[in-house]
Design a protein that fits this description.
By secondary structure, the protein is of the alpha/beta class. It has a domain at 6-31 and 78-111 and 169-210: 3-Layer(aba) Sandwich (Rossmann fold), CATH 3.40.50.300. The protein contains eight helices and eight strands. The protein has a five-stranded parallel β-sheet with strand order 2-3-1-4-8, sandwiched between helices. Strands 6-5-7 form a three-stranded antiparallel β-sheet. The longest helix has 24 residues, at 160-183. The protein starts with 5 loop residues before the first strand and ends with a helix. Bound molecules: adenosine-5'-diphosphate (2 copies) and zinc ion.
């Protein structure tokens, strides 16, 4: 099969999708396609459904037509990518199946209490999007990105109340997506509670065995 796999990384908010997608993008030389980053870069884009900002700040899903268009454009010819944060409901699953074929589908599993700790302590680079954590993954210099020197900030949806709402939306709307791939027999579940490097070892081995 192809050297540059089409990888889908599933998991609740805070599971480590962004962190591990960066590893996958490096290792397999594929683009990291993430609807969250694309939407944050276009928060005030006017669409017939309103702007993404209001949905994102409330922890709700942005309407499908907006997100589907972003994904179709970002996947391009669909020759190798790691997709993170999409699909999040069954309509998006159907749309994705129409535009590409997945080679590997992995789920990062993490308990609810650990997710809350990870999200409320997350810091992100305003320049390159790299993820850090005030306790679990500190940069060399506080507030400064190791990769690019950019400023690290807390996302405005990483507050405890919005985190709880995002987790509720995940259980209600995105868990059926996970079940869809499980029933299709393609889901590979990975223990996301290990250290970042141990998760990466497991994930890389899983991808290498599949492609
Ligand atoms: P997601 O993209 O799934 O929302 P992130 O990759 O942004 O998740 O990770 C959420 C937070 O948890 C970040 O602050 C990140 O530094 C931290 N993190 C990621 N992986 C681990 C891990 N294996 N153990 C502890 N903290 C982690
Ligand atoms: P996390 O993985 O930490 O939940 P993301 O960066 O993936 O965060 O998503 C942030 C926000 O962007 C979501 O709460 C939602 O409002 C919006 N979003 C991202 N991906 C999608 C999607 N596939 N469908 C609808 N909304 C999305
Ligand atoms: Zn950076």
């Amino acid at each position: 099969m192809s050297q540059q796999p089409n990888v889908l990384l599933l998991g609740p908010p805070g599971a480590g999708k962004g962190t591990q997608s960066a590893n996958i993008a490096d290792e397999y030389d594929v683009p990291h396609v993430t609807t969250g980053d694309a939407l944050r870069a276009n928060k005030d884009m006017q669409t017939e459904h309103g702007t993404p900002r209001s949905f994102m700040e409330a922890g709700e899903l942005v309407p499908d037509p907006v997100v589907n268009e972003i994904v179709a454009e970002a996947l391009g010819d669909g020759e190798g990518y790691v997709l993170d944060g999409y699909p999040r409901n069954e309509e998006q699953v159907a749309y994705l199946a129409d535009i590409t074929t997945l080679d590997v589908v992995c789920l990062l599993s993490v308990s609810e209490s650990e997710l809350v700790d990870r999200l409320t302590g997350r810091r992100v680079c305003t320049e390159c999007g790299a993820n850090y954590h005030v306790e679990f993954d500190q940069p060399d210099e506080e507030g400064v990105c190791d990769e690019c020197g950019g400023e690290l900030i807390q996302r405005d949806d990483d507050t405890e109340d919005t985190v709880r709402e995002r987790l509720r939306v995940y259980h209600e709307t995105t868990e059926p997506v996970v079940e869809h791939y499980r029933e299709a027999g393609v889901l590979q579940e990975i223990d996301g509670e290990q250290s970042p490097s141990a998760v990466w070892d497991t994930l890389r081995a899983t991808i290498d065995e599949t492609i």
